[in-house]
DNA sequence: TATTGTTATACTCTATAACTATA
DNA sequence: TATAGTTATAGAGTATAACAATA
């Protein structure tokens, strides 16, 4: 049990610094924040994505998600379309501009992450890391699921 | 190179959810936020800790660090003492109340993190994960060093 | 002139909760 | 009554920059 705390500190520091490194490049080269890139990717990857789906996937509050979507809409990358089955919610869809912003940013995103992962670790160590993170993520989401 | 993006998303989700899980328990059981626990640990672990040392260790801005220290002082966990060698900066020190808050919180912190790491992965997988994170952290800090 | 730290502005996110509309 | 989402408040973070004090 001792030592897990150090592991967590390393996890937090890596996440913070890697997030910042990717964010700096996305903002400079594509005018897109990493948080927005993240949301656009979730919207693109779900069939009928609602605000609450973003909340559960990204683990932010409903209010923050609602305002973040406002900013995506304002930037022209996303729109709300009526949900015919439930008048309380809308489905979120990328606009053509959103699709193109996302695909332009993806190259930078993958490249910067690869600099600190696949170019730094052996294929075996990378695979182990990916497996461990998947395992922990699944356990956390199983318990924290609403 | 493809697939590193997924790894990063898992890293971010694990960090967010694990941070939240620990933060909830620390606030409920010890009246301490995880961000404050983190700063107090850094201060406790450095001989003559200045505000700029927090900035470099935790990767926050100078303004945020200065205000965070104000709140630690206000809570009675920390004090600024004059730096005799440099009148521009102070050394940060834990008060007895800060030392006891930290040691009380440490048990909860280690226990909650262990739930999602050492109790979830084999000793070998845990060791691999710790090594990978240490490697990536060292590389990021070497490049981002001020 | 450069460094350390404080302070200020504007924006984003947090927790929390009131509120509307719909199921 | 419960759920989906919007809106509002206060507190804490971000970026950015002006600023004071000291090196």
Automatic annotation (TrEMBL), chains A, B:
Keywords: DNA-binding, Transcription, Transcription regulation. One of its GO terms (molecular function) is DNA binding. It comes from the Bacteria. Residues 4-138 form the HTH marR-type domain. SUPFAM superfamilies: Winged helix' DNA-binding domain (SSF46785). PROSITE patterns: HTH_MARR_1, HTH_MARR_2. InterPro entries: HTH_MarR-typ, MarR/SlyA-like, Tscrpt_reg_MarR-type_CS, WH-like_DNA-bd_sf, WH_DNA-bd_sf. GO terms for biological process: response to stress. Pfam families: MarR (PF01047). This is DNA-binding transcriptional regulator, MarR family. The lineage of its organism: Bacteria, Bacillati, Actinomycetota, Actinomycetes, Streptosporangiales.
């Amino acid at each position: 049990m001792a030592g897990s705390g150090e592991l967590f500190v390393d996890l937090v520091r890596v996440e913070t610094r890697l997030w910042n490194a990717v964010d700096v490049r996305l903002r400079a080269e594509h005018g897109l924040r990493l948080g927005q890139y993240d949301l656009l990717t979730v919207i693109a990857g779900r069939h009928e994505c609602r605000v609450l789906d973003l909340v559960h996937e990204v683990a932010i509050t409903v209010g923050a998600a609602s305002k973040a979507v406002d900013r995506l809409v304002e930037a022209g990358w996303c729109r709300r379309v009526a949900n015919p089955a439930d008048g309380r919610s809308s489905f979120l869809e990328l606009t053509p501009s959103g699709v193109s912003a996302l695909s332009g940013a993806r190259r930078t995103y993958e490249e910067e992450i690869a600099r600190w992962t696949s170019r730094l670790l052996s294929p075996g160590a990378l695979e182990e890391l990916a497996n461990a993170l998947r395992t922990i993520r699944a356990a956390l989401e199983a318990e924290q699921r609403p």
